[in-house]
Amino acid sequence: MQSGNKESFLNPSQKSILVLFFTLIICFVFGLKNFILQPTFLLKKLGQSSIDPEIAFTNNKPTFLEFYADWCEVCKAMAPKVNDIKNEYEKDINFVFLNVDNPKWEKYIRNLNVNGIPQVNIFGKDANLEFTFIGKQEGEIMRESLDNLDLKFSGDSKTINSDFSAIKENKNYKSSPRSHG
Asked: What is the full DSSP assignment across 119-175?
């Protein structure tokens, strides 16, 4: 006949250690998830805080215009730098963020020849294009460009290329929004 008392596989101290171990793993996974997803949330936050481009081009302030996509790893990598720049200059400069996957911005995508993202266009107070940055950029280069907006330019805009995500036509939309290439 079997005894009604079954001995536990683990003693109480081993159970405590095991519970503590799994708790630490769960906390680590949630912490890592927030760290990995932070640039995505930051990119969406920038898009939501964007000024309408029509207002930006008519209020006699310089404009920082970035084309981005939520899926763009280079855009995500640049988001913290761009956010720092926005926080530093937002009193004096308009910040506009346009998602290339939104057909609403197709006019701007075509007019500014957006072929890769992120693409940052910096306009003077008179809405003339002064600088274009395509791909991953250092924050200092963009800051210098913003600081130099007060200087008189000959009217020639400058384009700086770096690593970027190619975009191409996405056949899911009739208006041709962009997709990862």
From this structure: EEEEE-TTS-EEEEEES---HHHHHHHHHGGGS---S--EEEE-S-EEEEE-TTSTT
Q: How far apart are CA 144 and CA 130, in angstroms?
A: 12
Residues recognised as catalytic: 72, 75
- pTM for the full predicted model: 0.66
- Return the closest-CA partner of residue 119 out of 66, 69, 180: 66
CATH class of the structural domain 46-180:
alpha beta
> pLDDT tens for residues 44-103?
888 888 899 999 999 999 999 999 998 999 999 899 999 999 999 999 999 999 999 999
Task: Give whole-number Cα distances, 177 to 69, 151, 156, in Å.
Answer: 11, 36, 29
d(CA 59, CA 55): 6
Over the stretch 4-57, which tens digit does the pLDDT of each residue have?
555 667 788 887 888 888 888 777 766 655 455 566 788 888 888 889 999 999
Contacts for 181 with CB less than 8 Å, ≥ 6 apart: 165, 166, 167, 168
